[in-house]
Each structure stands twice: as structure tokens, then as C-alpha cells.
Amino acid sequence: MTLNILFLSITIKKRRISVEEAMHQEMVEKLYEENRDRQISMHHWM
């Protein structure tokens, strides 16, 4: 009889983002919000 056991270890680390990445993410979120608001206003206009 063969017994195969697989041990798996997962390590999760908190990812630190740079200032440039944070600024980019903030700009992306702002543009997303503006486009969403524009789409909603156009939908209500029609």
C-alpha cells in the first residue's frame, strides 16, 4: 500500500505599494467615477 501525502504551505504578505502606484490607482478611480457619472446622466437625459 502506498500513501502519498502532499504538504502545501502558502505565505501571504501584505503588499506595499509605491507612491507612484498609489497616485496612479487614485487617478484611475477618479476617471472611473467621472465616466460612471457621465453615463448615468446621459441615461437620465434620454
Tell me what you see in this structure.
- By secondary structure, the protein is mainly α.
- It is elongated.
- The model has no long low-confidence stretch (mean pLDDT 85).
- It has one helix spanning 19-45.
- The longest helix has 27 residues, at 19-45.
- The chain contains 1 helix and no strands.
Shape: elongated
Radius of gyration: 23 Å
Q: In percent, how helical is the residue content?
A: 55-70%
In total, the number of strands is 0
Main beta sheet: none
N-C termini distance: 72 Å
Percent of residues in beta strands?
Answer: under 5%
Quick tags:
about 45 residues, mainly alpha
List the helices and strands and how they pair.
Blueprint: H1 19-45
Short description:
The chain is built from 1 helix and no strands. The protein is mainly α and 46 residues long.
